[in-house]
Amino acid sequence: AFQNCYSLASITIPDGVTSISSYAFYNCYSLASITIPNGVTSIGNTAFQNCYSLASITIPDGVTSISSYAFYNCYSLASITIPNGVTSIGNTAFQNCYSLASITIPDGVTRINAGAFQNCYGMAEYHLKPTTPPTLSNTNAFSGIPADCIIYVPQGCLEAYQAATNWAAYADYMREEAA
After folding, report:
1. Nearest Cα to 137, choosing from 113, 109, 163?
2. At 160, phi and psi to the nearest 5?
3. What is the tens place of the pLDDT at every residue in 26-78?
4. Could you give the CA distance from residue 25 to residue 20 in angstroms, rounded to a whole number?
């Protein structure tokens, strides 16, 4: 719909829209602000890829998955809210989001795919809410993690996360969330 609108800086999507299709805002380099209505239930692959200026976004509660490449190369993205209904985070969904410093993975997430948070060099902390470690499709989901980044897991779940398939690669970064 707005692919390659290089100068588009701000947009409000009207109520009644239920889906943001694949490539909808692809290469909208100047897009810094977007309002997504609560009726949106799906965000397609590469929907916001290469939106270099996008600083923050709130994903509506009805969205259940973050598609592959959804926010890939959103270099300025410093704040994002992932709703509780999300169950999966797609391949490279947040790869190269250099400005993200903290993110909360809600309790309902059961799968984090390849490269989902790869090269998020500014990340200081992840807060994982699922008591059962989500499936990691491989060990590169968090590759490029900063040396001082902390992955917080729920109280009593540290050993389960550290032993889970592909999570073991990040065992040294894990701590239990404070009570």
Report:
1. 113
2. -65, -45
3. 999 999 999 899 999 999 999 999 999 999 998 999 999 999 999 999 999 99
4. 9
